[in-house]
Amino acid sequence: MYFKKGRFSRQAHVDLPEGTVEEEYAREGFFGRTSHLYRTEAPVGWVDIEGDLRPHAFETERLPGLGVADYVEGRVPFLQNADCELSMAHISEPMDYDFRNADGDETLFVHVGEGRIDTDFGPLEYEAGDYLVIPRGTAYRLIPSEKTALYVIETTGAIGIPERGIIGNHALFDPGVINVPEPAPRNLEGDRFRLKIKRGGKITTVTYPHDPFNVVGWKGDLTVWQLNIRDIRPILSEKYHLPPTAHVTFTAPNVVICTFLPRGLETGDPGALRVPFYHANIDYDEVLFYHDGDFFSREGIDAGMVTFHPQGLPHGPHPKAIEAAKTKERTDEVAVMVDTRNPLEMTAKALEVERKDYWKSWMTE
């Protein structure tokens, strides 16, 4: 069943009725039933919000506890639920133990720095812009060659690549660009080697008389992945603003990871929206980690910051972004979005680095 009432646009996101703004009201993360509401005022034109649904912004590079010498202890969570935990970690010195997460998969996004990651499957050299996907139960050790800042996405479910349907298996990125490790000896000195295992949030330390990374060969389809953002090729449309789901990079049960990269704006139709449309993605919380570039749709946002928009409250571009987009032809931003089906909770440390007035940035009076 499909209904049309009142004044509306013939094509979503194009040629809006004069004097209106468009809000996309959607289920299932833009995959389910959808309606477009044409309002006379933006749904973000509030003058006050009281309660938990206020939009939040965090200066995550200032989280208390970042930079602790111990990598595991120095990972600082700021948002979490039963399906995932989002943390930041700074590491400057090589880890003096190996680490295995038995609670879930880890996706490490390298925000700053470079170095090497040793794994059960072998080593990989990493750099800024890398995703390092580490399956649950895989041991690894980080050896930074320069200070490294990591955005850590831990999921209880397995990380995978989304179904791509009619656009084909080689869209967004060809699976052939994913790097995987090859076994290589570490030649570590000493006669005791520690492996720390996280299970149920607690740490168990196992000590071996030999290097536990003693794999000389492997085969299979479960391993560590490395994908750099330069190998992701965004889907573009000159005449239609695509939903965030067009930029999905990885998925896990109840969690979606998207990568927003520099791309051409909708210059093929003068009536097409060039900025993210107002939307009420009411089944998902939305978290954006800002990695690099000019974040023109969000005022006052710097690299390394995170915004958090809980489900239930519409959101969209800031007023100045709408005007700025009229003369822009390309975006110049890199951001990682995590959408979660179940509500996220802010940690106490997140509240310490929150920009308390972020929600006011949409206000025009």
UniProtKB/TrEMBL annotation:
Residues 90-226 form the Homogentisate 1,2-dioxygenase N-terminal domain. It holds the Pfam family HgmA_C. The active site is at 241 (proton acceptor). Keywords: Dioxygenase, Iron, Metal-binding, Oxidoreductase. Fe cation binds at residues 279, 285, 315. GO terms for cellular component: cytoplasm. Its cofactor is Fe cation. One of its GO terms (biological process) is L-phenylalanine catabolic process. GO terms for molecular function: homogentisate 1,2-dioxygenase activity; metal ion binding. Homogentisate binds at residue 315. Residues 260-363 form the Homogentisate 1,2-dioxygenase C-terminal domain. Belongs to the homogentisate dioxygenase family. PANTHER family: HOMOGENTISATE 1,2-DIOXYGENASE. This is Homogentisate 1,2-dioxygenase. It comes from Persicimonas caeni.
